[in-house]
Design a protein that fits this description.
Two copies of one chain form a homodimer.
Chain A: E1 6-13, E2 21-27, E3 33-38, E4 46-54, E5 57-65, E6 70-74, E7 77-79, H1 86-98, E8 100-112, E9 121-132, E10 144-149, H2 153-156, H3 165-179
Parallel strand pairs in A: 4-9
Antiparallel strand pairs in A: 1-2, 2-3, 4-5, 4-7, 5-6, 5-10, 8-9
Chain lengths: 183, 183
């Protein structure tokens, strides 16, 4: 594994604003120097939930995605709140967005967003043994829940309203680990 | 499909800075009103390249990821430059980061980053019929090229230095579409 660059200095630009930037003065092991910018992660981290209604069926939700101004189909996800651990946050998001709670929750991996310039990381949580329970969320409208067969990811990824890298990655990770017996 | 919310007003905060934010005043079809913020996409778009050395082997690169201050293993990717189309940008990135050009390039999908608050989109390009060619890039050090078997994504996703949602999603998309005969 290569030797990590030395961070000679760092400073925050736009401190206190929602999209603050951290500037890093770096020296690589070959002596090259660069100044890079990155977005610090926010808060207590994020979770994305692969919830299995049965061993072959995962719960997707359809909700408005402001970044694309479009309705997107993907996995429930959100930020972990104060006083919650990752699994509690995952279960709350599942109840708010999909109307189910889970009796069994396991972290099966971690996904980054754009690791070259964002510090954001999202825990991938597998949720099983579901039961109906809805919590009120802060969404302007209740997301539509769309059950999807895990053996039909091939048609899912060809849909124009399925684009989020983290959702697609988490679905395949869960399926791969379940099928390979790693879970 | 639900009716898209109406955008009553929009404004850019921090205009001209690298991480500018667009604020949107939205009215949902049920009458709920919200103000959302999103990061506009930058430039001419981005590409991520699934390059096949042979039908069973994909080229990964190991490079420094400032957002995580770690070396990450993932697919070659980058921004499309002025005067390039997506496939030309993909071929240039492949030559700069992996030291290969491709005689056959196809767009097989589009990935978004965080569609609820980012407009960023990345074209997934499948590159085949490779030949050695290196172009100088702007990286401070030449990325290490790591060939990986497409039938061994299971161990890849369990590595701690493999976290990027887009890379993992693009690898499984390519494998799924190739195996299902959709490509």
């Amino acid at each position: 594994m290569p030797k990590l660059p030395v961070i000679h200095a760092s400073r925050i630009l736009g401190e206190g604003t929602r999209f603050a930037v951290e500037q890093l003065d770096l020296e690589f092991s070959n002596g090259e120097r660069r100044t890079y910018e990155r977005m610090p992660g926010r808060g207590r981290g994020a979770v994305i939930v692969v919830a299995l209604l049965d061993p072959d069926t995962v719960l997707l939700i359809r909700e408005y995605a402001c970044g694309l101004h479009a309705y997107e189909l993907g996995l429930p996800k959100g930020r972990v709140e104060h006083g919650e651990d990752l699994l509690e946050g995952a279960n709350r998001e599942l109840k708010e967005e999909a109307g189910y709670g889970a009796r069994r929750l396991r972290r099966i991996g971690t996904l980054s967003l754009a690791p070259t310039y964002m510090a954001h990381q999202t825990a991938v949580v597998l949720a099983e043994d579901l039961y109906p329970e809805r919590l009120p969320g802060d969404e302007p409208e209740e997301p539509e829940v769309v059950p999807w067969r895990l053996d039909d990811l091939s048609s899912l990824i060809q849909r124009e309203d399925v684009t989020e890298g983290r959702s697609i990655a988490a679905l395949f990770m869960a399926r791969e680990l379940l099928r390979s017996g790693a879970l």
